[in-house]
Structure formats: structure tokens, C-alpha cells
Amino acid sequence: MRDQAPLTQAAPASARKATRRRRGFLRTYLTPKQAIPREARLTLGIGSFIVILLLWTLGSGLIDNPLFLPSPARVVTAWIGMVQHQHFLGDVGWSTFRIVAGFLIAAAMAVPLGLLMGSFEVVRAFFQPPINAIRYMPASAFIPLLILLQGLGEDEKLTVIWIGVFFQLVLMVMDIAHRVPSEMLNVAYTLGASRWTVFYKVFLPATFPEVVDALRITMGWAWTYLIVAELVAAERGIGSFILISERFLRADRIIAAILTIGLLGLITDAIFAVIHRSAFPYVEKVHA
Amino acid sequence: MSEIRFVDVAMRFKTRRGEVRALERISLTVPDGQFACLVGPSGCGKSTLLSVAAGLITPTEGDVLVDGKPAHTPGADRGMVFQSYSLYPWLSVRRNIEFGLEIKRTPRGERNRQSSELIHLMKLDGFAEAFPKALSGGMKQRVAIARALANDPQVLLMDEPFGALDALTRQIMQELLTDLWQRYRKTVLFVTHDIDEAIFLGDVIYVMTTRPGKIRTTLTVDIPRPRSFDTLKTEHFNELRNQVVGVIHEESMKAVESELARA
Ligand SMILES: Nc1ncnc2c1ncn2[C@@H]1O[C@H](COP(=O)(O)OP(=O)(O)OP(=O)(O)O)[C@@H](O)[C@H]1O
Ligand SMILES: [Mg+2]
User: Fold this and answer.
1) Which residues on A lie below 8 Å from B54 (Cβ)?
2) Domain enclosing residue A58, as ranges
3) Is CB count within 10 Å lower at the N or C end of chain A?
4) pLDDT tens for residues A218-229?
5) Does the CB atom of residue B137 touch ligand 1 within 6 A?
6) Confidence of residue A4 (pLDDT cuts 50, 70, 90)
7) pLDDT reported for residue A288
């Protein structure tokens, strides 16, 4: 857009250096909420990983017992071994399948209900009190009960994820719907829109970007619940792989599995970010 | 002909701390093609009156008539412009302006023709396909006005539309609005805090009392049209201004005192 502020554009490197010299080092880097130069941000981000790796290497060297803290190199070797000989990717596949299925079921129920609760007080008054209470009951505490009810199969895992996601997501979506400015709806009425038109042409689109954000956040939580469910009882999946590794005293495999979960989380996050950016190009970006 | 008439409109809100009397027996008529301004101290019920006119809320007593027909529900015959712009961020400038036409199922070609005309008239050329996030406050409000005008309403209701703009932008918007009014001759009911704005734009100024809001004074603005920036510098403008300021000041003082008494 031609009238967008040029602030977000990167200034030429020489100009940036000049600014830094004129503002001084402390002012450039230690002013609260002040943006720092892009390359500094990148360096710091990568640097934090390097520091962690260094500390880890150092610590494993000092402890010198792979049972407690295996070195990074050992973990990488373990990971390659897991993929080649332990069907680890199969476990990853199972966990991913459970996450996606459980999450989709929960989201498909939570989003419509949350939108209805946010817009109709009748629906909210009925559903909110029980959901509010259940939200404080940890999903993992239901696992023994679910095993009694459903056995150890897939449906038990999906139910755990569902419990963990559904109740949180419903309330988040309800809040989002509740925050849609009423003037936005009122304008539509004065333009001749019926209640139904206002609902699907104004109210729904007004909630979409934030709903996708809420999905992204709850998806992260879903991983936690799944791994707990798999740790308690499962024949396949990353959680059960971790449990078996523990029995064989293989800390390197456990760490490799945990890192894999982190990586999967990053990938999911990136997918949501791409969806958000391409589906909602109109959203104003507020930099925290 | 399209006039809007308020007949003994009263509005009381039931709140947890008892009843709030927002409006009390308001009767006024804005005849066809008149630009009427409504000023009054903060919280005296101006926005409430506009919401009643728009059909967004139902008055406790009385009626609003557009061309003699009761207006109990919102309709495309009464367009509204809010201070907060309330554009739809997911629609381009053009689709925002065409929103009402789309609801009416106006054919695409006709829709496009009308929005193009308004985009040009509102000095939004080059921004037809931009999203609202790329616009300045003044431009956003021009889109909101264009969106209301595209529907060709019989009455245009405006609630402090320029209240959030800086002084310079506001001046420019006021000039643009008189020019527009000169062209379309809509019946307008315009709420403002800004006395200069009310005199510059209005044919009539209704001054409201503090809550419960009643019409305290009606002033006719006999400044000839078309008006321009130079109008503000005339002696007559100043006279009118002093008159309105006097009345408003008195009412605002009363508002502050009654608030203190309650505290
Ligand atoms: N929905 C509501 N419920 C309860 N009280 C309300 C409601 N809407 C308005 N009021 C009260 O009615 C009075 C008039 O409000 P209104 O918004 O119409 O004032 P206003 O003249 O537009 O004020 P301002 O100049 O600040 O915009 C206020 O005291 C307000 O608190
Ligand atoms: Mg108001």
C-alpha cells in the first residue's frame, strides 16, 4: 500500500549503523519495548540455541554418565538409530494421527458451540457454568477412568485429547465472539441486513482470525495430554516409546523423543502461521 | 420527501443501580433535506436518541416516524455513521462501500458503478482494493460515509463522526461533508461535541439539556450556503458561536454539579 508507514521497511545497513552510533549502544538495545535491529534479533535467537548446546555439552562432559545426561552427539546418534531400527517414525505417525483426529473432533464441536455461546446469552447461560467447572479438572486425571470405560484403544486416547482441548477452546472462542464490537453489527442492520445476514456476513468473519489463533494455542496443549495418555498406557506412540526407553535406561532415546515432540510442535505452529497469513492478509499486525 | 419525526420519545434504562432516565419527551422534526445538528453535554442521551432513530433500540415511550411511518426496527432507509468507523476489516474499501448494495442484491455492474463514483467523490481514488488497515482515520471515515450513502438512505444519522480525528483532518472532513450535502440534499441528523462544527454544517442546532435529555433550545443557522472555510471567519459566525457556547456552558455546568451531588 502506498501510504503505509515506511517504519516497517528495513533501512539500508549503513543508515542503521549510523543510527546506532548516534543513539549509542545502551539506548539501541536497552530501551523498553524498543525494536532492535533485525540482524541483532537473528543473532540472539540463534545464539540462544548455541548457548544451550554448549552448556549441555559441558554438563554432559562433567557428569560423564550417559545414564543421566547423554551428550548432544549421543542423542543425535540415538535418534538416527531409533529411526533406522526402532520404528520410531511409526510411533511418530501414530501420535500425529491421534493428535490430528482428537483435535479435529474437539475443534469441530468447540468452535460452533463457542460462537453460539458468545453471541446468544441463552446458550451461554446454559453451557458456561458446567464448562467452567470442568475446565479446572485436569484431562490427565480422567485417564484412569477412561481406561476403565473405554479400554486401552484409540478411542481412549482421543477422548483424553478431546477433554483437554474442548473445554478450553469453547471458552476461548466464546470470548472472541463476545468481543466482536456491537457497532460492527449495528452498522450492518442500518444497511438493511437481516439478523441472519448479520450473523454470517459480519459476525462470523469478524471472529475467524482470532479463532485460528485459539486453535493454534490449544493444539499445543493437545500434545501434552496425548503424551501423558501414551505414558500411562499405550502400545504405540511417542509416549510409549519414551516409557520403553526408560525401562532400558536409555536417557539418550528419551531426550531424542522429547526433542522430536518439540520439533513437531514447531512445525504445527509454522503451518498455522502460514494459514493465518494467507487467509487473513487484512489483519493488522500488532507487535507485542 | 423524507422527514424524520420524534414524537414524545422517552428512554429509560433499567440498570442494577436503578433506573437511568436518558431521554425525556423529545419531540422534534427534521424536515426533508435539512441538516440538523444535535449538541449537548456528555451523557445527555445524544447517542441514545440516534439509536432510537436508527431502530437499534426501542424507546420506552413515544415513536419515531420516517415519512409518517413508524420506524421500530432498523432499516436501509436510515443510514448510520459511528465515530468508530466500524469498517469491516476483511473487506476491501470497495466491498465495504458496496456492503448495503450487496445485501439488496444489486447487480454487480450497477454496484461497481456506484462504488466507483463514491470512491472518486470521497477522494479515495487508488484505494479501492486496499483493506481498511492501510487507511488513515480520515480515510476510514470517508469510507464509512460512502458506505452509508451508497445505500441511498432517506435519513442519514451521524454520531460524532469526526470526533476521533485531529483538528486539521476534521476541518477537511467538514468541508467535504457540506459539499456532499449540497450535492445530495439528504436529511441529516448529526451529533457533535464541537460547536464550530455544528454551526458550520447545520441548518438548525438543537441544544440538549443534561440528563434526562430534553431539547432546551433550537437555533437556526442563517449562514448562507454553499459554506466554505471562510465562513468560519465571519462576524456572524462568531455571534452564533457565542450564543451556543453560552447555553451549552450553562448545561455542562449543571451536568457537572449534578454528578458531584450524586457522588
Ligand atoms: N444500554 C444502556 N444501559 C444503561 N444505561 C445506558 C445505556 N445506554 C446509555 N445509557 C445511559 O444513558 C445516558 C445517555 O447515554 P448516551 O450514550 O446517549 O449519551 P451521549 O449524549 O451520547 O454522551 P456522549 O456525549 O458522551 O457520547 C448515559 O448516562 C448512559 O450511561
Ligand atoms: Mg454519544
Assistant:
1) 186, 189-190
2) 5-69
3) C
4) 998 898 899 999
5) no
6) very low
7) 46
